[in-house]
Design brief:
alpha/beta; Rossmann fold; Arc Repressor Mutant, subunit A; 5-stranded parallel beta sheet; two-stranded antiparallel ribbon
Length: about 230
């Protein structure tokens, strides 16, 4: 490979490969090395190593496989973006599961490409995602937009319901989400067990829920997003 000046290196699209099959990484690297605008700066087959690598290198693009051994990388996409806020993630996968594809994009991936696409398409996708575009199949785009709209509506409804609670009711909800019993809630708030039960009945009604478990899961999920 010819020597590159610092200016040439800086102008390249810096890519980190994350795939648990070394032969796949080797093939992808060979495809990308044929493009003067793209430079592979690191690779790994382990998701924890990938997050460390991304944090260290702050690459322009992470080329991420969805299936890494026995686990999926979807849940780690937000962690990667937190480690490198300017990095954009392009999923490169052989898994033809539209639901997983939608989940990856909703988690923050900036594009998705199947592994059976030609090398020229891969290079184009990387450049498009790097320039700020989203690269996905047209049919999948429509499905993702519908899912995102539904998720936004669900969040709006949840927020409206939570706003209907009084400050004391919110305290009780937070304590339920933290695993407290009625007795410990009563002790913490200096009220009686009966008052806690009555308050919970009102809370269930306002939030349209029927069980303590449902309330705890709802509250924990909302708390993580606030």
């Amino acid at each position: 490979m010819p020597d590159m000046t610092n200016a040439e290196v800086d102008s390249n699209i810096r890519v980190v490969l994350v795939d648990d099959h070394s032969v796949v990484r080797e093939g992808v690297r060979m495809i990308l090395e044929n493009d003067k605008d793209i430079q592979v700066t690191g690779e790994t087959g382990n998701i924890d190593e990938a997050i460390s690598l991304v944090r260290l290198q702050q690459p322009d693009i992470v080329l991420l496989d969805l299936a890494l051994g026995s686990e999926t990388s979807i849940g780690h996409i937000p962690l990667m973006l937190e480690a490198a806020p300017s990095t954009r993630i392009l999923v490169l996968t052989g898994v033809s599961d539209e639901e997983l594809h939608k989940r990856a994009l909703l988690k923050g991936a900036h594009g998705l490409l199947m592994k059976d696409k030609a090398g020229t398409v891969l290079r184009t996708a990387i450049k498009k995602v790097h320039s700020g575009e989203v690269w996905v199949d047209r049919g999948l785009t429509a499905a993702v937009l519908r899912a995102a709209a539904h998720e936004d509506e669900s969040k709006r409804v949840a927020a409206d319901r939570l706003r209907s609670l009084t400050p004391r009711e919110m305290e009780i909800v937070e304590l339920v989400a933290s695993g407290h019993t009625n007795r410990s809630i009563a002790d913490a708030l200096c009220i009686s067990d009966k008052t806690v039960r009555n308050r919970l009945t009102v809370i269930y009604d306002k939030l349209e829920m029927t069980s303590r478990l449902e309330l705890a899961l709802f509250a924990s999920s909302h708390r993580q997003k606030r």
